[in-house]
Write a structure and sequence with these properties.
CATH architecture of chain B: 3-Layer(aba) Sandwich
Largest sheet of chain A: 7 strands, parallel
Largest interface: A-B, 94 and 83 residues
CATH superfamily of chain B: HUPs
Radius of gyration of chain B: 21 Å
Strand order of the largest sheet of chain A: 7-11-6-1-4-5-12
Radius of gyration of chain A: 21 Å
CATH superfamily of the largest domain in chain A: HUPs
CATH class of chain B: Alpha Beta
Oligomer: heterodimer
Bound molecules: flavin-adenine dinucleotide, adenosine monophosphate
Number of domains of chain B: 1
Shape of chain B: globular
Number of helices of chain B: 6
Distance between the termini of chain A: 47 Å
CATH topology of chain B: Rossmann fold
Number of strands of chain A: 18
Number of domains of chain A: 2
CATH topology of the largest domain in chain A: Rossmann fold
Chain lengths: ~325, ~250
């Protein structure tokens, strides 16, 4: 049994979800008996490839070409499918990042494979992989099995543990590439960073402000708390629709799905569409002056009170703690 | 310019979802269905492209008769043609994509728009699968699009920013919130849509590549703990986050 894992890198650095996917594949391979083959695609990525061994990769294939420095869905998908076939993979896994989610459906069609998207658990039952994936924005969970010969899974970031990197390096081999110009008819020309800010989709701690913050000028205290915690700022849809915060910060059913270790919801009522995007967070703190706000139902800890009083006090207390320890 | 949008008909996002007794589907009592929110952005973008470049817009939905309701909504927004690919079977992205791709091949549009994902099964797969089946490039999760001279430049949302993607046409795009503000159908549009025909096409059985084992409600979380009612509770909250949860 062979599991091929697409290990996403940007600027020659693996994304954390790439390590999570390699480790998750290793856990499955340990139960079914088999190997985990990493796949790295990029402009010049040879030097980082071997480190996947530390997360459980048996060996690593590298697809290098200057034209691959910028992401191209058509070219990348072609490579993943070709390597899966050359390596006779039984399973292909990708992180459910923006890149992984863009690639997986295309690769699935090329390989005639069933695809389980955005999985939050993988178990082995009767020699088969059963994936758990949320549906209806997490209001229900499904267990699914792929019935095709080759099976594909994308794994939700921040859910599977990458574990510590062992001191192991995997043997690296070059993937044979047969790229033509028409594989690059669709290609990224430029990346616009949102001012170096940490993205909610990648943050381990998120502080979200809702409409109860009363105006964009009051988000300074949210930003300060996020900064003290080393986290990202999130926003409810009400806040985004009012133009107080940019859309990329929106958490929820029509925003981003997040599962950080700590989610602090400030002056957010906890509408069902908001909960859909954040209820899988490990710890949730709610701060709201309405004791009946639904957000308290989802929260681990809550303070019923005025955000304008509590948030500055919380920031000060966090600074005190982190300054000390 | 020939434009097409594929739309799904899904439970309202405000609906309470309960799992049916068979543990293989949701309990449909009291659940109202609407056009998939992301697909409204897809329809709107097609209408705007038509207003700018001329052409016509076809909307397509694959499913049972109930999907006609969302097709009528799109007609009321102003699309030229609505097509129902009739299928009442259990869905799987691969099968749905195959059904849609077969039809799209016949009409070969310059641009096909999808939503970024259906809010029922949350796959986010059908649009890009169709692109691959048609042999077309695609840009997913698009928040901005410019089309000129047989090319398109699209911006897609990624972690921490946006990718600017250039592609040749014809191409497939999937819409993310932020792309546009969908119009409300006018009264005239709504009245007109009632009498417009919806073309129906039977589908041969779609083959699925995924099988549902079971469906269940997520495990209930233990009730949250209210620590206090003012700023004096803050030190205790920080202590709990540090010592009990160990997240800071
Ligand atoms: C199709 C669809 C998709 C949607 N998708 C999303 C989504 O992705 N994300 C999302 O967030 N929403 C989404 N919504 C909107 C959602 O239904 C709610 O309208 C929205 O989440 C409300 O935002 P809010 O909690 O900031 O505002 P409100 O509901 O207005 O809540 C404000 C809260 O602030 C509290 N408050 C006020 N003053 C203070 C104070 N001084 N101190 C402490 N607390 C205070 C109030 O008690 C209240 O609970 C969607 C809706 C639809 C129909
Ligand atoms: N049954 C369907 N009929 C028409 N379009 C669909 C259907 N299912 C999904 N789509 C389209 O595919 C997109 C992605 O859906 P999904 O892969 O199911 O998340 C949706 O936003 C729709 O544009």
């Amino acid at each position: 049994m062979k599991i091929l894992v697409f290990a996403e890198q940007r600027e020659n650095k693996f994304k954390k979800p790439a390590f999570e996917a390699v480790r998750a594949a290793r856990n499955v391979a340990d139960q079914l008996g088999g190997e985990v083959i990493g796949l790295v695609i990029g402009g010049a990525v040879q030097s980082i490839a071997a480190t996947l061994g530390g997360y459980g990769a048996t060996r690593v294939c590298v697809a290098e070409d200057p034209r691959l420095a910028m992401y191209s869905p058509t070219a990348y998908a072609k490579i993943i499918a070709a390597v899966a076939q050359a390596q006779q993979a039984d399973v292909v896994m990708l992180p459910a990042t923006s890149m992984g989610k863009d690639l997986a459906p295309r690769v699935a069609v090329k390989l005639d494979a069933g695809l389980a998207a955005d999985c939050i658990a993988l178990k082995v039952e009767g020699g088969e992989i059963v994936a758990t994936r949320p549906v209806y924005a997490g209001k229900a969970l499904t267990d699914v099995k792929m019935t095709s010969a080759l099976k594909m899974f994308t794994l939700r970031p921040n859910v599977f543990s990458a574990g510590e990197s062992a001191d192991a390096s995997a043997p690296v081999e070059a993937a044979s590439l047969a790229l033509a110009d028409q594989d690059f008819t669709c290609v990224v020309k430029e990346i616009k960073q949102s001012s170096g800010k940490l993205d909610v989709a990648e943050a381990d701690i998120i502080v979200t402000g809702g409409r109860g913050m009363k105006g964009p000028e009051h988000f300074g205290i949210i930003e300060q708390l996020a900064q003290a915690l080393g986290g990202a700022v999130g926003a409810s849809r009400a806040v985004v629709d009012a133009g107080w915060r940019p859309h990329e910060e929106q958490v929820g059913q029509t925003g981003k799905t997040v599962s950080p270790s700590l989610y602090i919801a400030v002056a957010v009522s906890g509408a069902i569409q908001h909960l859909a995007g954040m209820s899988s967070s490990k710890y949730i703190v709610a701060i709201n002056k309405d004791k009946d706000a639904p957000i308290f139902q989802a929260a681990t800890y809550g303070i019923v009170g005025d955000a304008f009083e509590i948030i500055p006090a919380l920031t000060a207390e966090v600074k005190k703690l982190l300054g000390k320890s | 310019m020939k434009l097409a949008a594929c739309i799904n008909h899904v439970p309202d996002t405000a609906a309470k979802i309960n799992v049916a007794a068979d543990r293989m589907s949701i309990d449909k009592t009291g659940v109202t269905n609407v056009i998939n929110p992301y697909d409204e952005f897809a329809v709107e973008e097609c209408l705007r492209l038509k207003e700018k470049n001329g052409g016509d817009v076809t909307v397509i939905s694959l499913g049972g008769d109930a999907h006609k309701e969302s097709l009528r909504k799109a007609l009321a927004m102003g699309v030229d043609k609505a097509v129902l690919l009739k299928d009442d079977g259990v869905r799987d992205s691969y099968g749905v994509a195959r059904g849609l791709a077969d039809y799209l091949k016949e009409i070969s549009p310059d641009i096909v728009f999808f939503g970024k994902q259906s809010v029922d099964y949350d796959d986010g797969a059908v649009g890009v699968m169709v692109a691959e089946m048609l042999g077309l490039p695609s840009v997913s999760v698009v928040v901005k699009l410019e089309v000129a001279g047989g090319k398109a430049v699209a911006e897609r949302e990624i972690e921490g920013g946006r990718e600017v993607v250039e592609t040749t046409l014809p191409a497939v795009f999937t819409a993310q919130k932020g792309l546009n503000e969908p119009r409300y159908p006018s009264l005239k549009g709504i009245m007109g849509a009632k009498s417009k025909p919806i073309e129906e096409r039977p589908l041969t059985a779609l083959t699925a590549k995924a099988a549902l084992v079971q469906m269940q409600k997520p495990p209930a979380k233990p009730a949250g703990r209210v620590i206090g009612t003012d700023a004096t509770a803050v030190p205790e909250l920080v202590r709990l986050l540090h010592e009990e949860a160990k997240v800071i």
